[in-house]
Amino acid sequence: MSEQRKLYVRSFGCQMNVYDAQRMTDTLAREGYVETDSPDDADLVILNTCHIREKAAEKVYSELGRLRKAQEEAGRQQMVAVAGCVAQAEGAEIIKRARAVDLVVGPQSYHKLPELLAEAEARRSGKAGARAKLVETEFPVEDKFDFLAPPTREAIGKRGPTAFVTVQEGCDKFCTFCVVPYTRGAEVSRPLAKILDEVIRLADGGVREITLIGQNVNAYHGLDAAGRPANLAELVRRVAEVPGIARVRYTTSHPRDMDEELIAAHRDMPALMPYLHLPVQSGSNRILAAMNRKHDRELFFEIVARVREARPDIAFSSDFIVGFPGESDEDFADTMDLVGRVGFASAFSFKYSPRPGTPAAGMEGQLPEDVKSARIYALQALLDRQKAAFDEACRGRRFDILLEKPGRFPGQLIGRSPYLQSVVVEAPREAIGTLARVEVREVSTKSLSGDILGGEFFAGRPIGETRFIGQSEKLEA
Ligand code: SAH
Ligand code: SF4
Ligand code: F3S
């Protein structure tokens, strides 16, 4: 191991990037890099970028500008690497636009970071002769997950009782607005056993809740020990069986891949949280077809109804795009109508952003900014009202929360409800990582607060022995 150096990683975009950032940090920890939470004292800065919308992609350049200015002012020597989806999409362009960058590395090559950094360092110091900057955006044949380092126990402990695990990467759906199939490549599922190994390791380090992630997570079809493809329902079941794991979630799903078994898993597995993020994008069949979403609004309603039947206390969240090319007032009214019919506990909504290389960017009927703004304003007002109503309806309800971290004031902890709401309670720090039964007392826009009625820590039982009490079981403390 070489001398200790400091690493600062900043992630933009989705949970896949959060997970990747952890794997990069773990891999570089082996090379002697320790994490710092400020770019100012870092020897190496990694910007882990997102290309999904123009605004997200542009952030990297403003961030790089800021870094360069800070470097100049402080006379600092610092390596800068750009990773993530902008790296994949723009490659050498980044080096042209931002001189501060030493290395551009795409998401499929993170396992090569140690050698790439050594090479970039050599080029920087002129030892390698050539001064050209390094760009690595190939899709290598080997699976990066086989080479990325797992987290140490200490790293797991520091990251808290919830963890993401990437189980599937890439996308074959090719929605006409989306860059993901280009930046992350074709859909690949990790083998079941490797995911379980990772989950066991995390559970051993104190993790209680696993969120299985993938751009198209319910298209998961990783091979099991017998070489047969396992589906997401099977994976969820196996993960829930790992001792110590009390809660399982998965994201992001595509409506087309919500199969019978996965819906049944919501009925049969109390550990599978009753909260489903199911992006629909639009409520207009005309627009859904132009987006190449491969389903109509009727199928979405049908899935929602079936999942609700399987798990009556389930809540939905979703993603929406307004102002897709050709979207008429009527199409938009269909989206508002769909939202009204389904009722969402929370949602993300975006103005359509034309992305280079995607079919929709070249479509006729691109809409002016003021139309997009008016529509997003109306949609978000409706979604905000629904979220407020959902939160309000939680007042007086009792459910298990997973205590995750200290709150703002001494004696407070923050946990998460089954619906991912932040819940503030009074509890000692030692209770972090345990499930507590809580009655919700107060509701505000950002969080809920409640009284603890009981739970693993409070009953004095060790973690792992207490089975998760499904919220629908209406257990009285
Ligand atoms: N795989 C997920 C979404 C990944 S991207 C799915 O199938 O839904 C996350 C969200 O970003 C999308 O759901 C969509 O709402 C939004 N998004 C993607 N491309 C966009 C674009 N060009 N303009 C605006 N929003 C976009
Ligand atoms: Fe993008 Fe569509 Fe794939 Fe989701 S399903 S990642 S929106 S192409
Ligand atoms: Fe962004 Fe790439 Fe995720 S484009 S949303 S970081 S897959």
TrEMBL record:
It catalyses: N(6)-dimethylallyladenosine(37) in tRNA + (sulfur carrier)-SH + AH2 + 2 S-adenosyl-L-methionine = 2-methylsulfanyl-N(6)-dimethylallyladenosine(37) in tRNA + (sulfur carrier)-H + 5'-deoxyadenosine + L-methionine + A + S-adenosyl-L-homocysteine + 2 H(+). It is an enzyme of class 2 (transferase). It is found in: Cytoplasm. Its main location: cytoplasm. Keywords: 4Fe-4S, Cytoplasm, Iron, Iron-sulfur, Metal-binding, S-adenosyl-L-methionine, Transferase, tRNA processing. Residues 157-392 form the Radical SAM core domain. [4Fe-4S] cluster 1 binds at residues 14, 50, 85. Residues 5-122 form the MTTase N-terminal domain. One of its GO terms (cellular component) is cytosol. Residues 392-454 form the TRAM domain. Gene3D superfamilies: Methylthiotransferase, N-terminal domain (3.40.50.12160), tm_1862 like domain (3.80.30.20). Its cofactor is [4Fe-4S] cluster. Binds 2 [4Fe-4S] clusters. One cluster is coordinated with 3 cysteines and an exchangeable S-adenosyl-L-methionine. GO terms for molecular function: 4 iron, 4 sulfur cluster binding; metal ion binding; tRNA-2-methylthio-N(6)-dimethylallyladenosine(37) synthase activity. Belongs to the methylthiotransferase family. MiaB subfamily. NCBIfam families: miaB-methiolase (TIGR01574), MiaB/RimO family radical SAM methylthiotransferase (TIGR00089). Catalyzes the methylthiolation of N6-(dimethylallyl)adenosine (i(6)A), leading to the formation of 2-methylthio-N6-(dimethylallyl)adenosine (ms(2)i(6)A) at position 37 in tRNAs that read codons beginning with uridine. This is tRNA-2-methylthio-N(6)-dimethylallyladenosine synthase. The gene is miaB.
